[in-house]
Amino acid sequence: MNLRENVRLAPYTTLELGGPARYFVECASESEVRAALAHAAAHGLPVFVLGGGSNVVFPDAGFPGLVLRVAIGRDQGITFREDKGRAPEISAGAGADWDTLVRGAAERGWTGVECLSGIPGTVGGTPIQNVGAYGQEISETLVRVTGLDRATLEVRTFTADECEFGYRDSRFKRRDRDRYVVLDVTLRLRRDTPPRVRYPELRDAVTRAGPLDAAAPADGVRLVRQTVLALRRAKSMVLDPGDPNARSAGSFFMNPVLSPAAFAELERRWQSGGGAGAIPSFPAGDMVKVPAAWLVEHAGFPKGYRRGGAGVSARHALALVNLGGTSAELLALADAIQAGVEGRFGIRLECEPEVVR
Q: For residue 83, with 0-12 CB atoms within 10 Å meaning exposed, 13-18 middle and 19 or more buried, which class applies?
């Protein structure tokens, strides 16, 4: 176990923010994770488990304990299985790059994760927040997750149902928060099946790119992936060192899911405040999903808005970007946006990244 001291965390996050970790260790195997957790327990150190750093905000003061970066499967840690008569499966270590997995599935023409193309981060983080984009979620293809109990060091395997998935949610964010270290994930996809394009923006873009209905299923999967990547790139939602708008944690706020009555109240507030036009919305079962980006912009925080060293992306109103500032400045902007949306619309936006206090 290579335990390092006073390691700056900013280079390990897509926001490029965060002070030093008192101790830092990268673990490429289950045994190394066990050793790191045992060391922390023996010395009374708090532990933060880090993956790709694409969904976390560390404070400027850093972290006073041990940051455990999961690197299981980072190098050639993805297995693609295709047995005759059975649905194809993908197994990957928690430290494997997520988009490398998606690219491998698309190259094989397997359907099920193509809409999740271009999302930065590692495989281990996907079941924790039920990663989703463009109408697709990891819960639709996940078969099992293996996790290590941080207290007992026992290994447990969870089925998809046992993960208790919800919108950007799972048991690992709620009742089992900080209890398990994800070790590996297995997905089950489909072959010879046309991709399902449910999100209007993606559907329109795919239609412009090529006739999906006329394409062979495998070609359709690859078309959808390339279209998603193009959409994300246009919004600075892919990693690009040359793009200042890409120094973000992706979508900073989750789309509110409202009851019909709550949505009617939102419409009333919008119209009584002089708002013109309809509020964009999407069905979510018996509920109504409202784009948080629309709420942010109409609460007075347009694309390109800047406050000190933090701002709203010039390309996507949901992405807060580091413009050479500090974590404190970024979080102050997030607080201001939450207060502004709540004051204008009566809705409290929920942060999507994990904010380490």
A: exposed
Q: Which residues of 259-284 are buried (b: 16+ CB within 10 A; e: fewer)?
A: eeebbeebeeebeeeeeeeebebeee
Q: What percent of the chain has pLDDT over 70?
A: 100
Are the beta carbons of 46 and 23 closer than 8 angstroms? Answer: no
The reported pTM is: 0.94
From CA 24, how far away is CA 44, in angstroms rounded?
Answer: 15
Quote the CA–CA distance of 353 and 326 in Å, as a whole number: 16
Would you identify the CATH topology of the domain 244-355? 3.90.78
Using an 8 Å Cβ cutoff, are 94 and 70 in contact?
A: yes
* Residue 232 to residue 219: CA distance in whole angstroms: 20
Cβ atoms of 146 and 156 within 8 Å: the answer is yes
> What stretches in the chain show pLDDT beneath 70?
none
Confidence (pLDDT) at 136: 97
Q: What pLDDT sits at residue 1?
A: 83
Query: Contact at 8 Å (CB) between 307 and 301?
Result: no
Per-residue confidence (pLDDT) for residue 84, from 0 to 100: 85
Tell me how far apart the alpha carbons of residues 209 and 5 are, in angstroms, rounded to a whole number.
50
For the chain, which residues make up each domain, given as ranges?
4-70, 78-234, 244-355
Question: What is the CATH number that goes with domain 4-70?
Answer: 3.30.43.10
* Model pLDDT, residue 51: 97
On whether the CB atoms of residues 320 and 349 are closer than 8 A, the answer is no
Class of domain 78-234: alpha beta
- Comparing CA positions, the residue from 283, 279, 260 lying closest to residue 270 is 279
Q: Which residues contact 140 (CB under 8 A, 6 or more apart)?
A: 112
What's residue 176's pLDDT?
Answer: 97
d(CA 58, CA 295): 26
Largest interatomic CA distance in the chain: 62
- What are the residue numbers of the active site? 168, 251, 352
Angle at 229 between CA 225 and CA 231, to 5 degrees: 115
